[in-house]
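batch job 7 of whatever, protein = Transmembrane protein 115
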Amino acid sequence: MNRYLPVAQQHFLTALASTSVVVKSICATVLLLYLISWEVNTHVVLGVTPGYLFPPNFWIWTLVTHPMVEQHVWGVAVNVGTVIVAGRLLEPLWGALELLIFFAVVNISAGLFSGLSYVLTYATTFDLRYLFAVHVYGSPTFLGGVLVALKQTSGDSTVLRVPQVRLKAAPALALLALAILRLAGLLDSSAPLAGCGYGALAGWVYLRFYQRHSRGRGDMSDHFAFASFFPEALQPAVGFVAGLVHTALVKVKVCRKMVKRYDVGAPSSITISLPGTDPQDAERRRQLALKALNERLKRVEDQSSWPSMEDEEDDDTDEIRTDAPLLPARDPSPPAPSTTQNPTGPESSIISFEDAPANS
């Protein structure tokens, strides 16, 4: 075990060094708050506590600080790992500023809706534990958003080969794992499950409708629809309900109806607006096709050793000797005219006729 620690440390430092100042700052803050947690209950002061978030207490700063609070070393590892993965896979596509905006939107939204859910639960059960004994903090909120973003950018990538698990199923698997841990009693409360679920939902809403990019705003491609997060058997029903909710939100102007744009490479530079497929989906499929082609070519190169050039030359020589004709080929050039040629026509090159001598 000890021999793997230097290798893991080297990979960690290499990955961290290649990220931007945004990722490094978040990781440093997580480590700092973890050290402070040895003396102070940071999960209470800086985490989202439903009873303190809303008036009259109004601890609004916890919406910003809760994703960087950890109480255990494995929580620090998951938190820092999630941020580094986002920096390595999402930051090159979005940029450091957009990654920071995504971090803020996901965590603030997840903290707010998690606290509101527990307040509504208290209003139903009148159990004060839902107000003051529950603390939402740590990596689950941002983890849910990052998994959704990775589903959008590289959903068809394989995470596990046996059994085969693709990255597009990662958000649902993360929620399932947290639910199992909660039912098994390994989690103190349902706050991590709520945080991860609301983080995934907030990340999807932002990426689906509001994220700005060179092609406009949002991603309305079919592979990123809300129903695609569910098993195939449930997708028709979920898609129908999600369509009704989206239509209602469009009518109240919370969401807007999206129109896809296509740039047709023609001399007239025509731009067509159609409600069909998104160009971002086409670009994603093109990248996946190129990746599959590169992997296939690499597998072909790694197969059995190729025959040497000398063997190929010997085979070619044998083929030439075998295919050589038994009779010499005729010269395709026409024969030179003979000086004794009959003026009435050309002489045969096979049989020649001479004038018989005249009888005296």
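notes: The longest strand covers residues 158-161.
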